[in-house]
Fold this sequence. Notes:
The structure holds two protein chains of two kinds. Chain A is of the alpha/beta class.
Amino acid sequence: MRFEGSADYVATEDLKLAVNAAITLRRPLLVKGEPGTGKTMLAEQVAASLGLPLLEWHVKSTTKAQQGLYEYDAVSRLRDSQLGDNRVQDIANYIVRGTLWQAFASETPVVLLIDEIDKADIEFPNDLLRELDRMEFHVYETREMVRARHRPLVFITSNNEKELPDAFLRRCFFHYIRFPDRDTLARIVEVHFPGIRKDLLREALEAFFEVRDTPGLKKKPSTSELIDWLKLLLAEDISPEVLRSKDRKTIIPPMHGALLKNEQDVHLFERLVFLARQSR
Amino acid sequence: MLIDFFLALRRHRLPVSLKEHLMLIEAVRDGVIGPDIDAFYLLARAALIKDESLYDRYDLAFAEYFKGVQALTGLDADIPLEWLRRQAELELTAEERARIEAMGGWEKLMETLRKRLEEQHERHQGGNRMIGTAGTSPFGAFGFNPEGVRIGQDASRHRRAVKVWDQREFRNLDGTAELGTRNIKVALRRLRRFAREGAADELDLEHTISGTARNAGLLDIQMRPERRNAIKVLLFLDIGGSMDDHIKLCEELFSAARSEFKRLEHFYFHNCLYEHVWKDNRRRISERTRTVDILNKYGHDHKVIFIGDATMSPYEIVQPGGSLEYANEEPGAVWLRRVLDTWPRTVWLNPEPEELWNYRQSIAMIRDIFRGRMFPTTLQGLEQAMKVLSR
Lengths: 280, 391
Ligand SMILES: Nc1ncnc2c1ncn2[C@@H]1O[C@H](COP(=O)(O)OP(=O)(O)OP(=O)(O)O)[C@@H](O)[C@H]1O
Ligand SMILES: [Mg+2]
């Protein structure tokens, strides 16, 4: 099994190598990077290109590690007991499998995405150490041991909101997706808009990086904003000339609201352009 | 050979573990990469380095290690001056270093080396002989193979693509993370010790339901005390004077600490701790608290954090009457020692850059009193401090 990128996803050499190392050794790959650098999409693409099912576990601040294994649905059991249902005798009827269990139980290897692990409590990764290492866990209620038939390919993403524990990190391969450089970004755009006019692409990227480099932005526009913005430019049939300028600092690109989503950032950007115009 | 690589990374203070090293070996063995140094660079990074802010240090370590290997094997002549200097300064004995100094220092040595190299190249092109023999020539004596050394010659660089690790693209990521309230909170959470203490005044829904279910439907109400962070913290903040430069940081620390610890008391002091502290900076004269009372009031299990730049005249620490605020009967050092005796878990956070500490006498003194438990207010420093406190 080897991941070579896909028609819909631009994977750099270093990313592919990290993915393949993780796949070969069946160790989790932890992927970090700015928002919109394709962390979540990576797992989807690996699954699609290897022809494996994808199981997704989206982590929130309230997510507990246990929920990925299983949950005991006491409320249903209580209700069934009131209704005199016979199922109530067997506790196993009320054990609900979590994503990890489903991944372990699958007949074929699967890709398991644990998305945004840093959203959860700092203890969360520690609570999954054994499960990710040995790929097994114990179900207390039914005294059953669940072992993975096939070690799943685990992809974990993080936005770096919290530092992850060392013990957890030691068990993973790690890759930091840098914000793409101009060439990579151009390749990504062409994946999304095949045959886009070269001059439009060039001017748009130029304008995009100009906005992105505005000092003091709360949220820098990312790949997804660039793609949304291009979608608008194409829909409105904006010509490259509109984006071009001798002094780029003095123009506000059309529909810049798609690039800067935060009101403060929009103001900041407009003010800087205004100042640049004045000082000319 | 790979174990040397591992040790080289450790020498560069990269926190690589044996477990990760074994993972790397396994990956090499399982054919993840071919015999390709660039691929090895990437694979080793993915296996060993788990923090992108360390990528730059990794690049340096990698460059150094593999150039060392190349120098030994004489396979590839491309050793930058900077590498030699660092390598040598790391490994030379004091005596050898003195000899270099006697010869006019590194610059001189390298200059001579370059000249000799040129001469030798004129004489026998591509010759494989060392310049001088060990013991008689300064170069041989230091174990270099000058044949393998190109100093200040960029020709080879133009021929060859510059290696990734030499580009050091992650340079700006290195360094200690900036502290924001969020980061501070995360660091402070290390101190968490949750406990359910006191009266059972909260309905334990989960256990009520499961109890009732297990009870075949008979209601089984369960109560429990609320879950609280049981850690108790005393915060002593240096205020005014040279601390004005650090106000934002102190505010952030303070607000993060306040939201994290329910049981937090804070006090202000100026420069050093003496007979009095105060809780409200506007009423620092009228509403003072006696330090003695604090020492008596708060139990030994309190964690104590001092925040201050420890920058003052040494008199303010060791002399009675040294305080800027009032005539103190006992020197600040005595008060600080009392604090340490009362609360064994005490640390000092210093917002001044750590590199400066050695140049300020008062910082060294206070650090001494604190038996080394002074930490910079970087994310790393904060984490170390919390580790010490939570022990
Ligand atoms: N390498 C890439 N190739 C193709 N499209 C990409 C690539 N990187 C990002 N994109 C585009 O950017 C969008 C955002 O990607 P994705 O949601 O995976 O980012 P993310 O890193 O998970 O962001 P977040 O941290 O916000 O979750 C994708 O839907 C895709 O359209
Ligand atoms: Mg995502």
